[in-house]
Design brief:
Nucleotidyltransferase, domain 5, five-stranded mixed beta sheet, binds zinc ion, single chain, binds 5'-O-[(R)-(carboxyoxy)(hydroxy)phosphoryl]adenosine, 10 strands, N(6)-L-threonylcarbamoyladenine synthase, 2 domains
């Protein structure tokens, strides 16, 4: 059981003794999720309904099919989350949902379901920022030694590649973002370009599994570009193009033998993770030079479930922070990818502070972490 004393904003620490139970919904992309979480950090249930089999033929998330699948799966996910938690809907204390950022139609399904549940049950409601939830996950999962604020966080998902300074549960400053594509999206596209079969975990995880399955030849990969050396910012379009050019020049994926594909996939993963490594070291140096007292680096989001990334960042952070140690913190892989546990947990400080949203709250498909993300919405 988590002692959340370090998590609650100073003024609300007295609330940590009150048990508050949240039913949370997440539907920002292609996973339909529902979970029940308590203010003491107990995960009473965690339902994730994946849609990879629906989107594989389209080579990426098909917006309409995704909305349809959420509409189909959300009622059952909520029912199972309550059943697994052994709790009736009327017994939960609050309803949370992902307000943004994400795909408009997909967010709409979770938002409408949450608002309707909250209104029917007369429960308070909180709309959560999806990336805030990824960033705060280790404050739940790393008990009894959660990361302490301020911490640096690397958020790597299908929609984002961010380096963020987290000063509290609700204050974030974006230090770096991508100037073009997100790392998760490029993992997905390269996996597709190499015609790798999607595993149950999706295209990014398939690429990782393919690389790990056998040692790769080092001599087949094209020159992989190093993006914006020395700059605190990400770029993956050059790497994406380098792989695409190579595959096209060889006559397409069907013309590549398995060992060539291995070499290419492995060089891609090495270069993409190498870029994360380089920018993390730059950001850690910046935090040190600013005298911010950063003691933890949190790495979260779907791509953070990648074992190669976890190993490699583990070594580079130790090496880069020998004089002034910074601990690397990952959520467990299953809570790196999208889930509703993180949404319930990220809503908790707002419920306990009585800082909740109106039932008229609207989704925010585009929403920066730099904005004041915990301001309640009061108008329709
Ligand atoms: O956080 P997430 O589940 O959803 C978004 O918020 O986007 O991240 C999904 C992204 C996808 O691009 C997926 O392919 C990638 O994370 N991903 C991975 C792995 N598992 C998921 N990428 C690389 N290696 C993995 N093992
Ligand atoms: Zn996510």
């Amino acid at each position: 059981m988590l002692s959340p004393s370090r998590f609650w904003p100073r003024g609300h620490r007295h609330l940590r003794t009150r048990l508050f139970t949240v039913l949370a919904l997440e539907s920002s992309a292609d996973d339909t999720c529902a979970a029940v979480v308590t203010s003491t950090g107990q995960i009473l249930s965690n339902i994730v309904v994946k849609q990879h089999h629906i989107h594989e033929d389209f080579g990426g998330i098909h917006p309409y099919k995704a909305v349809q699948a959420h509409q189909l799966n959300m009622p059952g996910a909520v029912q199972r989350a309550l059943r697994d938690a052994n709790i009736a809907a009327a017994q939960v204390d609050g309803i949370a949902f992902t307000r943004g950022p994400g795909m408009t139609g997909c967010l709409g399904v979770g938002c409408s379901a949450a608002k309707t549940l909250a209104a029917a049950l007369n429960k308070p409601l909180v709309g959560v920022h999806h990336m805030q939830a990824h960033a705060l996950t280790p404050t739940l999962t790393s008990a009894p030694n959660p990361p302490t604020f301020p911490f640096l966080t690397l958020l790597v998902s299908g929609g984002h590649t961010l380096l963020v300074l987290a000063s509290s549960a609700s204050q974030f400053r974006v230090l770096a973002t991508t100037v073009d594509e997100s790392i998760g999206r490029v993992f997905d596209k390269v996996s597709r370009m190499l015609a790798l079969p999607w595993s149950a975990k999706g295209p990014g995880a398939s690429l990782e599994e393919f690389v790990a399955a056998s040692p790769a030849r080092e001599d087949v990969a094209p020159l992989m570009p190093r993006a914006m050396p020395g700059v605190l910012g990400f770029s993956f379009a050059g790497l994406h193009s380098a792989v695409e050019r190579f595959v096209t020049a060889q006559g397409g994926a069907a013309s590549l033998d398995v060992s060539t594909k291995h070499g290419l996939a492995s060089a891609f993963q090495r270069t993409a993770v190498g870029q994360l490594e380089e920018k993390v070291v730059l950001a850690l140096r910046w935090c040190r030079d600013q005298g911010l007292g950063v003691r933890h680096l949190v790495v979260s989001g779907g791509v953070a479930s990648n074992s190669y990334l976890r190993d490699r960042l583990g070594h580079s952070v130790i090496n880069a922070t020998r004089q002034d140690p910074v601990s690397l913190v990952f959520p467990p892989p299953e809570l790196c990818t999208d889930n509703a546990v993180m949404i319930g947990w990220a809503s908790m400080h707002r419920f306990l502070a009585g800082n909740t949203d109106e039932y008229s709250i609207l989704i925010r498909p585009k929403w920066s972490l730099d904005d004041d993300i915990d301001i309640p919405q009061t108008e329709s």
